[in-house]
Amino acid sequence: MSDATPAPQPPAPAPPSFGELLELSAVALVNAPGVFARLAARPAPGKGAAFLLALTWGALFFALNALHAVLSNLLPAVEPWKVAAVVALGFGIWTALFLLAAAFFYGLGRVLGSEGDFARALLAVAVMLACAPVQGLCNWFPLAWVLPAVLAGWIAACGLQALFKANAWAARSACAALVAGVLGAQYAARVLIERSAAAVSLAKSALEAGQNADQLALNIQNLQQPDPAPGAPSGLDLLRGPAGEPAQAPGGPPPPQQVALAAADMNKNVLAMLDSLAPMLENPLITRGMKPQQKADFAELQKLIAEMRTQMAAGAPMTQQEHQRRMAKIQGLAVRLMSSSMTLGPAPGAAK
Predict the structure, then answer these.
(1) 270 plus 153 within the same structural domain
(2) Angle at Cα 189 formed by Cα 132 and Cα 340, nearest 5°?
(3) CA distance 276 to 329
(4) Angular region, 205: left φ>0, alpha ψ -120 to 50, beta rest
(5) Residues 317-328: tens digit of each pLDDT
(6) Is there a single domain that holds both residue 61 and residue 207?
(7) Segment 255-298, tens digit of pLDDT
(8) Which partner for 68 in 24, 139, 282, 351 could form a disulfide, CB atoms 3.0-4.6 Å apart?
């Protein structure tokens, strides 16, 4: 009786290749439990494969943001070596954040689970970074800004359960708390950036309006000055008619209709400038999170501009001194609001 030939042993599972990791991390955006179940059944890939996967998703993230900046004319023309330096710095920061996230994930996995090592933590975080290009796509879809953080939290919870054998509810609760913190920080940063941009735009428009209005007032003042000696050029030459028409006597005041037309033109231009400020003054982002003194300054600014608009729209007369006093006050309030907006963060209730 011959001995039975032993059945051949199935080959040991091999670690996933980089191509498989890239495919699986993309699939994790829609089926994270299935992806991590497959990864848990195979040996962890080398640390180099996890690094390469993280850098690949980082490159796509930077490329999408650069494309958005180019299409939106936000990227200034810079020298190639500066671009290379910024890219190198960006990848350095990306790598450092990747390692910090992996260390945090490993610590969380050891607290909540019973298995897993640092190589598994690197793998899980590299898979999570597939959410980074989704964040880049949110430049074109700003209302979806919460999606990447929620996706990353879901993938992290699945990774903790599959790779570290963590309790499902504990993993989900911890990741939900982390996602809530990230979303709160993102919202506060967005509010601060939008408020600062709106305040800078408001102050810039107010300063430009004041400068242009002062120039118009200077033109009116020049019209009211006497003419120079006969034969010398005058600022009224542009307002005079053809040579055949009678000119005013040297040294006399300009015709009343010229002064009235110039004053009406000044009022029209200043009114247009004030009208251009209206959309910014009605923007709710400016007052969101303001302190009481800031709100008082903003209310006074709105009142001054509304009074000037009403007076000019009605054609009511305004002396040059009164005009300059109001414009100086408007400019001062706008600059003060801009300064306080740039130095103060949003109030505690701004991120609710």
Answers:
(1) no
(2) 155
(3) 18
(4) alpha
(5) 666 677 777 777
(6) no
(7) 666 656 666 666 666 666 666 666 666 666 666 666 777 778 77
(8) 139
